[in-house]
Amino acid sequence: MEQGKREVGALNRHRRRWRCVPCEPLGHLSSKAGALFNRRPPLTNERKTADLPLAVWPCAQRTSQWQRYKRYLPESNRHPGKMLPALARRAVEDYSDPGDLILDPMCGIGTTLVEASRLGRRAFGIELEPRWAQLAIGNLDHLHAEDSRARARAHVAEGDARELGRLLTVEGRALLEARSGVRPIASGAVNLVLTSPPYACELADVRTENKVRGGGPLRRPDTTNYSRDRRNLGHARGSRYLEAMAPIYRACASVLKPGGFMVCVTKDMRSAGGGALRNLSGETIELCESAGLTYWQRVIGLLATVRDDELVMRPSFWQTLHARRRRANGDRTQVVAHEDVLVFRKPVVAVKEASPTTIRKAA
Protein backbone atom coordinates (compact mmCIF):
# COMPACT_ATOMS: atom_id res chain seq x y z
CA MET A 1 0.00 0.00 0.00
CA GLU A 2 2.78 2.45 0.96
CA GLN A 3 4.66 1.70 -2.26
CA GLY A 4 1.49 2.38 -4.27
CA LYS A 5 1.01 5.73 -2.51
CA ARG A 6 4.58 6.77 -3.26
CA GLU A 7 4.28 5.82 -6.95
CA VAL A 8 1.00 7.67 -7.43
CA GLY A 9 2.35 10.69 -5.58
CA ALA A 10 5.39 10.80 -7.83
CA LEU A 11 3.20 10.62 -10.91
CA ASN A 12 1.01 13.49 -9.73
CA ARG A 13 4.03 15.69 -8.88
CA HIS A 14 6.16 15.09 -11.95
CA ARG A 15 3.86 14.21 -14.81
CA ARG A 16 3.91 17.71 -16.31
CA ARG A 17 7.68 17.91 -16.01
CA TRP A 18 8.30 14.69 -17.96
CA ARG A 19 9.65 15.80 -21.32
CA CYS A 20 10.89 14.01 -24.40
CA VAL A 21 14.39 15.20 -25.38
CA PRO A 22 14.49 15.66 -29.16
CA CYS A 23 17.21 14.03 -31.27
CA GLU A 24 18.03 17.45 -32.75
CA PRO A 25 17.06 21.05 -31.87
CA LEU A 26 13.47 21.86 -32.72
CA GLY A 27 13.73 25.62 -32.32
CA HIS A 28 13.06 26.14 -36.01
CA LEU A 29 9.64 24.53 -35.52
CA SER A 30 8.30 27.12 -33.11
CA SER A 31 7.36 29.67 -35.77
CA LYS A 32 6.72 27.22 -38.58
CA ALA A 33 5.15 24.23 -36.83
CA GLY A 34 1.77 24.91 -38.39
CA ALA A 35 3.23 25.27 -41.87
CA LEU A 36 5.31 22.12 -41.47
CA PHE A 37 2.42 19.90 -40.44
CA ASN A 38 -0.53 21.37 -42.37
CA ARG A 39 -1.73 19.21 -45.19
CA ARG A 40 -1.21 21.76 -47.97
CA PRO A 41 0.54 24.93 -46.73
CA PRO A 42 1.34 27.72 -49.19
CA LEU A 43 4.33 27.19 -51.45
CA THR A 44 7.33 29.39 -50.71
CA ASN A 45 10.75 29.78 -52.24
CA GLU A 46 12.27 28.31 -49.07
CA ARG A 47 10.16 25.13 -49.10
CA LYS A 48 9.61 23.66 -52.55
CA THR A 49 7.94 20.57 -51.04
CA ALA A 50 5.32 22.39 -48.97
CA ASP A 51 2.51 20.93 -51.09
CA LEU A 52 3.47 17.36 -50.18
CA PRO A 53 1.67 15.75 -47.19
CA LEU A 54 3.90 14.48 -44.41
CA ALA A 55 3.42 10.97 -42.99
CA VAL A 56 3.58 12.35 -39.45
CA TRP A 57 0.32 13.60 -37.99
CA PRO A 58 0.59 15.73 -34.81
CA CYS A 59 -2.61 14.57 -33.11
CA ALA A 60 -1.94 15.69 -29.54
CA GLN A 61 -1.53 19.46 -29.75
CA ARG A 62 -4.44 19.42 -27.30
CA THR A 63 -5.31 16.71 -24.79
CA SER A 64 -7.94 14.11 -25.56
CA GLN A 65 -10.29 15.72 -23.03
CA TRP A 66 -10.01 19.15 -24.66
CA GLN A 67 -10.47 17.71 -28.13
CA ARG A 68 -13.83 16.29 -26.95
CA TYR A 69 -14.91 19.19 -24.74
CA LYS A 70 -18.53 20.17 -25.58
CA ARG A 71 -18.30 18.14 -28.81
CA TYR A 72 -18.88 14.77 -27.13
CA LEU A 73 -20.88 13.71 -24.09
CA PRO A 74 -18.83 13.87 -20.85
CA GLU A 75 -19.31 10.13 -20.23
CA SER A 76 -17.19 9.48 -23.34
CA ASN A 77 -14.05 9.94 -21.24
CA ARG A 78 -14.84 6.69 -19.40
CA HIS A 79 -13.98 4.57 -22.43
CA PRO A 80 -10.44 3.21 -21.87
CA GLY A 81 -9.32 3.04 -25.53
CA LYS A 82 -10.62 6.05 -27.45
CA MET A 83 -9.25 7.19 -30.80
CA LEU A 84 -8.15 10.82 -30.76
CA PRO A 85 -10.66 13.02 -32.65
CA ALA A 86 -7.80 14.84 -34.41
CA LEU A 87 -6.45 11.54 -35.73
CA ALA A 88 -9.85 10.34 -36.92
CA ARG A 89 -10.54 13.67 -38.60
CA ARG A 90 -7.21 13.63 -40.44
CA ALA A 91 -7.73 10.06 -41.69
CA VAL A 92 -11.23 10.88 -42.97
CA GLU A 93 -9.98 14.02 -44.73
CA ASP A 94 -7.03 12.29 -46.40
CA TYR A 95 -8.66 9.03 -47.49
CA SER A 96 -12.26 9.92 -48.38
CA ASP A 97 -14.39 12.60 -50.02
CA PRO A 98 -17.61 14.33 -48.91
CA GLY A 99 -20.57 12.01 -49.35
CA ASP A 100 -18.46 8.84 -49.05
CA LEU A 101 -19.50 5.97 -46.77
CA ILE A 102 -17.22 5.47 -43.76
CA LEU A 103 -17.32 2.30 -41.66
CA ASP A 104 -15.93 1.58 -38.20
CA PRO A 105 -16.55 -2.10 -37.26
CA MET A 106 -15.41 -1.52 -33.64
CA CYS A 107 -16.65 2.01 -33.12
CA GLY A 108 -16.61 2.28 -29.31
CA ILE A 109 -18.03 5.69 -28.36
CA GLY A 110 -18.31 6.69 -32.04
CA THR A 111 -15.29 8.96 -32.59
CA THR A 112 -14.92 7.87 -36.22
CA LEU A 113 -18.63 8.38 -36.85
CA VAL A 114 -18.78 11.83 -35.23
CA GLU A 115 -15.74 13.16 -37.09
CA ALA A 116 -16.84 11.63 -40.42
CA SER A 117 -20.32 13.07 -40.00
CA ARG A 118 -18.88 16.51 -39.22
CA LEU A 119 -17.01 16.34 -42.50
CA GLY A 120 -20.10 15.53 -44.55
CA ARG A 121 -19.65 11.77 -44.89
CA ARG A 122 -22.12 8.96 -44.37
CA ALA A 123 -21.07 6.92 -41.34
CA PHE A 124 -21.88 3.43 -40.07
CA GLY A 125 -20.48 1.89 -36.89
CA ILE A 126 -20.73 -1.47 -35.13
CA GLU A 127 -20.14 -1.95 -31.42
CA LEU A 128 -20.48 -5.15 -29.39
CA GLU A 129 -20.91 -3.61 -25.94
CA PRO A 130 -24.38 -2.07 -25.31
CA ARG A 131 -22.93 0.59 -23.00
CA TRP A 132 -20.55 1.99 -25.61
CA ALA A 133 -23.04 1.55 -28.48
CA GLN A 134 -25.58 3.70 -26.64
CA LEU A 135 -22.91 6.29 -25.93
CA ALA A 136 -21.96 6.40 -29.63
CA ILE A 137 -25.61 7.01 -30.47
CA GLY A 138 -25.72 9.73 -27.83
CA ASN A 139 -22.66 11.45 -29.28
CA LEU A 140 -24.25 11.48 -32.75
CA ASP A 141 -27.50 12.83 -31.30
CA HIS A 142 -25.48 15.50 -29.50
CA LEU A 143 -23.72 16.47 -32.73
CA HIS A 144 -26.88 16.69 -34.83
CA ALA A 145 -29.30 17.95 -32.18
CA GLU A 146 -30.78 20.46 -34.63
CA ASP A 147 -30.26 18.68 -37.95
CA SER A 148 -32.34 15.52 -38.35
CA ARG A 149 -31.36 15.08 -42.00
CA ALA A 150 -27.65 15.00 -41.17
CA ARG A 151 -28.36 12.65 -38.22
CA ALA A 152 -30.03 10.20 -40.59
CA ARG A 153 -26.73 9.84 -42.47
CA ALA A 154 -25.05 8.16 -39.49
CA HIS A 155 -26.03 4.91 -37.78
CA VAL A 156 -24.77 2.67 -34.98
CA ALA A 157 -25.55 -1.06 -34.93
CA GLU A 158 -25.07 -3.17 -31.81
CA GLY A 159 -23.46 -6.46 -32.82
CA ASP A 160 -20.39 -8.50 -33.71
CA ALA A 161 -17.87 -6.98 -36.14
CA ARG A 162 -17.46 -10.37 -37.85
CA GLU A 163 -21.04 -9.96 -39.10
CA LEU A 164 -20.52 -6.47 -40.46
CA GLY A 165 -21.68 -7.40 -43.98
CA ARG A 166 -25.08 -8.53 -42.72
CA LEU A 167 -25.40 -5.66 -40.23
CA LEU A 168 -24.55 -3.05 -42.86
CA THR A 169 -26.99 -4.56 -45.36
CA VAL A 170 -29.86 -4.83 -42.88
CA GLU A 171 -29.41 -1.88 -40.52
CA GLY A 172 -27.50 0.46 -42.81
CA ARG A 173 -29.68 0.08 -45.87
CA ALA A 174 -30.58 3.77 -45.89
CA LEU A 175 -26.87 4.63 -46.16
CA LEU A 176 -26.14 2.32 -49.10
CA GLU A 177 -26.32 3.54 -52.65
CA ALA A 178 -28.69 1.73 -55.00
CA ARG A 179 -26.91 0.27 -58.01
CA SER A 180 -28.86 -0.03 -61.28
CA GLY A 181 -32.11 -0.59 -59.46
CA VAL A 182 -30.70 -3.56 -57.55
CA ARG A 183 -31.47 -3.80 -53.85
CA PRO A 184 -28.52 -2.20 -51.96
CA ILE A 185 -26.00 -4.63 -50.48
CA ALA A 186 -22.92 -4.11 -48.34
CA SER A 187 -20.41 -5.85 -50.61
CA GLY A 188 -18.20 -3.25 -52.28
CA ALA A 189 -20.19 -0.33 -50.83
CA VAL A 190 -17.73 1.27 -48.39
CA ASN A 191 -15.21 3.95 -49.37
CA LEU A 192 -13.19 3.94 -46.15
CA VAL A 193 -12.89 1.63 -43.16
CA LEU A 194 -11.39 3.50 -40.20
CA THR A 195 -10.97 1.67 -36.91
CA SER A 196 -8.74 1.24 -33.87
CA PRO A 197 -8.99 -2.34 -32.60
CA PRO A 198 -7.82 -3.40 -29.12
CA TYR A 199 -4.05 -3.51 -28.64
CA ALA A 200 -4.04 -6.98 -27.04
CA CYS A 201 -2.94 -5.56 -23.67
CA GLU A 202 -4.50 -4.67 -20.33
CA LEU A 203 -6.24 -1.31 -20.08
CA ALA A 204 -8.91 0.37 -17.99
CA ASP A 205 -10.26 3.75 -16.97
CA VAL A 206 -8.58 5.15 -13.84
CA ARG A 207 -10.32 5.62 -10.50
CA THR A 208 -9.40 9.28 -10.18
CA GLU A 209 -10.47 9.52 -6.55
CA ASN A 210 -8.13 6.67 -5.53
CA LYS A 211 -5.27 8.07 -7.60
CA VAL A 212 -5.56 11.44 -5.84
CA ARG A 213 -5.60 10.03 -2.31
CA GLY A 214 -3.01 7.36 -3.13
CA GLY A 215 -4.93 4.30 -1.92
CA GLY A 216 -7.37 1.68 -3.15
CA PRO A 217 -7.79 0.02 -6.56
CA LEU A 218 -6.83 2.17 -9.53
CA ARG A 219 -8.78 0.27 -12.21
CA ARG A 220 -12.48 0.68 -12.82
CA PRO A 221 -13.60 -2.95 -13.18
CA ASP A 222 -16.53 -2.10 -15.47
CA THR A 223 -14.11 -0.59 -18.02
CA THR A 224 -11.22 -3.07 -17.74
CA ASN A 225 -10.55 -4.37 -21.27
CA TYR A 226 -13.73 -2.55 -22.37
CA SER A 227 -16.12 -4.96 -20.62
CA ARG A 228 -16.55 -7.57 -17.90
CA ASP A 229 -17.61 -9.99 -20.64
CA ARG A 230 -14.66 -12.32 -21.33
CA ARG A 231 -15.93 -12.88 -24.87
CA ASN A 232 -15.07 -9.29 -25.72
CA LEU A 233 -12.05 -9.00 -28.01
CA GLY A 234 -10.39 -6.70 -25.46
CA HIS A 235 -9.67 -9.79 -23.34
CA ALA A 236 -8.02 -11.75 -26.18
CA ARG A 237 -4.25 -12.24 -26.08
CA GLY A 238 -1.63 -13.92 -28.25
CA SER A 239 -2.82 -16.30 -30.95
CA ARG A 240 -6.42 -15.98 -29.74
CA TYR A 241 -6.33 -12.27 -30.58
CA LEU A 242 -5.00 -12.91 -34.09
CA GLU A 243 -7.58 -15.66 -34.71
CA ALA A 244 -10.36 -13.27 -33.66
CA MET A 245 -9.12 -10.36 -35.80
CA ALA A 246 -8.58 -12.33 -39.03
CA PRO A 247 -12.29 -12.74 -39.93
CA ILE A 248 -12.94 -9.07 -39.07
CA TYR A 249 -10.29 -7.87 -41.51
CA ARG A 250 -11.63 -10.26 -44.18
CA ALA A 251 -15.12 -8.84 -43.66
CA CYS A 252 -13.74 -5.29 -43.95
CA ALA A 253 -12.05 -6.18 -47.23
CA SER A 254 -15.28 -7.64 -48.63
CA VAL A 255 -17.32 -4.45 -48.07
CA LEU A 256 -14.66 -2.06 -49.41
CA LYS A 257 -15.02 -0.70 -52.91
CA PRO A 258 -12.15 -1.49 -55.30
CA GLY A 259 -9.60 1.24 -54.67
CA GLY A 260 -11.09 1.95 -51.25
CA PHE A 261 -8.94 2.33 -48.15
CA MET A 262 -8.79 0.77 -44.72
CA VAL A 263 -7.00 2.76 -42.01
CA CYS A 264 -6.14 0.76 -38.90
CA VAL A 265 -4.78 2.58 -35.85
CA THR A 266 -2.64 0.35 -33.66
CA LYS A 267 0.29 0.52 -31.27
CA ASP A 268 3.16 -1.78 -30.33
CA MET A 269 2.92 -2.31 -26.58
CA ARG A 270 4.92 -3.97 -23.82
CA SER A 271 3.21 -6.05 -21.16
CA ALA A 272 2.93 -4.60 -17.67
CA GLY A 273 5.53 -7.08 -16.44
CA GLY A 274 8.10 -5.99 -19.02
CA GLY A 275 9.64 -8.22 -21.65
CA ALA A 276 9.79 -7.80 -25.40
CA LEU A 277 7.77 -5.20 -27.27
CA ARG A 278 4.98 -6.92 -29.20
CA ASN A 279 5.08 -6.38 -32.95
CA LEU A 280 1.34 -5.76 -33.23
CA SER A 281 1.71 -3.50 -36.24
CA GLY A 282 3.59 -6.22 -38.14
CA GLU A 283 0.99 -8.83 -37.20
CA THR A 284 -1.78 -6.49 -38.35
CA ILE A 285 -0.07 -5.98 -41.71
CA GLU A 286 0.16 -9.75 -42.22
CA LEU A 287 -3.51 -10.25 -41.34
CA CYS A 288 -4.69 -7.50 -43.71
CA GLU A 289 -2.51 -8.69 -46.57
CA SER A 290 -3.90 -12.19 -46.04
CA ALA A 291 -7.37 -10.65 -46.36
CA GLY A 292 -6.46 -9.45 -49.86
CA LEU A 293 -5.55 -5.84 -49.06
CA THR A 294 -2.45 -4.00 -50.25
CA TYR A 295 -0.21 -2.40 -47.63
CA TRP A 296 -0.27 1.22 -48.78
CA GLN A 297 1.24 3.54 -46.17
CA ARG A 298 2.43 3.81 -42.57
CA VAL A 299 1.73 7.14 -40.88
CA ILE A 300 3.04 8.15 -37.47
CA GLY A 301 0.25 9.49 -35.28
CA LEU A 302 2.30 11.69 -32.96
CA LEU A 303 1.09 11.60 -29.34
CA ALA A 304 3.43 14.36 -28.18
CA THR A 305 2.85 18.10 -28.42
CA VAL A 306 5.18 20.14 -30.62
CA ARG A 307 5.96 23.12 -28.38
CA ASP A 308 8.79 25.61 -28.91
CA ASP A 309 12.06 23.65 -28.84
CA GLU A 310 10.81 20.35 -27.40
CA LEU A 311 8.30 17.54 -27.67
CA VAL A 312 6.01 17.37 -24.64
CA MET A 313 4.73 13.84 -24.06
CA ARG A 314 1.14 12.99 -23.26
CA PRO A 315 1.41 9.38 -22.01
CA SER A 316 -1.52 7.67 -20.33
CA PHE A 317 -1.51 7.12 -16.58
CA TRP A 318 -0.83 3.41 -17.05
CA GLN A 319 1.93 3.98 -19.58
CA THR A 320 3.61 6.44 -17.21
CA LEU A 321 3.29 4.12 -14.21
CA HIS A 322 4.73 1.07 -15.99
CA ALA A 323 7.53 3.07 -17.64
CA ARG A 324 8.65 4.50 -14.29
CA ARG A 325 8.68 1.04 -12.72
CA ARG A 326 10.78 -0.39 -15.55
CA ARG A 327 13.21 2.51 -15.44
CA ALA A 328 13.52 2.11 -11.67
CA ASN A 329 14.47 -1.54 -12.26
CA GLY A 330 17.21 -0.48 -14.65
CA ASP A 331 15.42 -1.36 -17.91
CA ARG A 332 16.64 0.75 -20.83
CA THR A 333 13.21 1.37 -22.32
CA GLN A 334 11.73 4.44 -24.00
CA VAL A 335 8.15 5.68 -23.82
CA VAL A 336 6.21 5.04 -27.03
CA ALA A 337 4.82 8.44 -28.02
CA HIS A 338 3.06 7.56 -31.26
CA GLU A 339 0.46 5.30 -32.77
CA ASP A 340 0.97 3.36 -35.98
CA VAL A 341 -1.61 4.45 -38.54
CA LEU A 342 -1.56 1.57 -41.03
CA VAL A 343 -3.19 2.28 -44.39
CA PHE A 344 -4.34 -0.51 -46.71
CA ARG A 345 -6.01 -0.38 -50.09
CA LYS A 346 -8.29 -2.79 -51.86
CA PRO A 347 -6.85 -3.58 -55.29
CA VAL A 348 -8.58 -1.97 -58.24
CA VAL A 349 -9.99 -4.65 -60.52
CA ALA A 350 -9.23 -3.84 -64.15
CA VAL A 351 -12.42 -3.74 -66.23
CA LYS A 352 -12.30 -3.49 -70.03
CA GLU A 353 -13.70 -0.31 -71.51
CA ALA A 354 -14.33 1.09 -68.07
CA SER A 355 -14.70 4.85 -67.77
CA PRO A 356 -11.65 6.59 -66.31
CA THR A 357 -11.75 7.16 -62.55
CA THR A 358 -9.75 9.38 -60.28
CA ILE A 359 -7.29 7.41 -58.18
CA ARG A 360 -6.52 8.90 -54.77
CA LYS A 361 -2.86 9.47 -54.11
CA ALA A 362 -1.16 8.01 -51.06
CA ALA A 363 -0.69 10.53 -48.25
Describe this structure in words.
There is one protein chain. This protein has helices at 2-14, 33-37, 64-68, 85-95, 111-118, 130-143, 148-151, 164-171, 208-213, 238-255, 280-290, 317-328; strands at residues 56-58, 101-104, 122-127, 154-158, 190-195, 256-266, 294-302, 304-307, 310-313, 338-345. The radius of gyration is 21 Å and the shape is globular. The chain contains 12 helices and 10 strands. A hairpin with a 2-residue loop joins strand 8 (304-307) and strand 9 (310-313). 35% of the residues are buried. The protein has a single domain, classed as Vaccinia Virus protein VP39 (Rossmann fold, 3-Layer(aba) Sandwich). Helix content is 32%, strand content 17%. Residues 10-32, 35-39, 200-207 and 350-363 have low confidence and may be disordered. By secondary structure, the protein is of the alpha/beta class.
- When the domains are counted, the total is 1
How large is the share of residues in beta strands? Answer: 15-25%
Helix content class:
25-40%
- Per CATH, the class reads Alpha Beta
Largest sheet: 8 strands, mixed
Task: Supply Rg.
Answer: 21 Å
N-end to C-end Cα span: 49 Å
How would you classify the helix and strand content by structural class? Answer: alpha/beta
**Outline, from the CA principal axes?**
globular
